[in-house]
From TrEMBL:
This is RAD54 homolog B. Residues 6-85 form the Myb/SANT-like DNA-binding domain. It comes from the Eukaryota. Transmembrane segments: none annotated. InterPro entries: FSBP, Myb_DNA-bind_5. GO terms for cellular component: nucleus.
Length: 127
């Protein structure tokens, strides 16, 4: 099977750099509508983020807008999972979470409330 070459894994600093670059655009990127104008604006934002990201580190492999978009989506998912795990183990909430998750929580505070709602729904469905 011949496909495109797999790019290298993102390092912690690359993840944090991406989150820094995404921050000014969070309001647009987290808009959950299917309007054409919103989709066009999101694509424009991701193109800008990709250009800025690739300009930061010349020693890094270049990343596409789609690759960065996928990473951002994964970071949000990992943050949700990590917060749910923290709640399940009921350990000290802020001390054990990863740096990317902390940044995601700062940018999108709704993620922690999503986990609370999901947790409540899980408890209610147990009865």
């Amino acid at each position: 099977m011949v496909g495109k070459a797999r790019s290298s894994n993102f390092t912690l600093s690359e993840k944090l750099d991406l989150l820094k670059l995404v921050k000014p655009y969070v309001k647009i990127l987290e808009e959950h509508t299917n309007k054409h104008s919103v989709i066009v604006e999101k694509n424009r934002c991701w193109d800008i983020i990709a250009v800025n990201y690739n300009a930061i580190g010349v020693d890094r492999p270049p990343r596409t807008a789609q690759g960065l978009r996928t990473l951002y989506k994964r970071l949000k998912e990992y943050a949700k999972q990590e917060l749910l795990q923290q709640k399940d183990t009921q350990s000290d909430f802020k001390s054990n979470i990863s740096e990317p998750t902390k940044k995601v929580m700062e940018m999108i505070p709704q993620i922690s409330s999503f986990c609370l709602v999901r947790d409540r729904n899980h408890i209610q469905s147990s009865f």
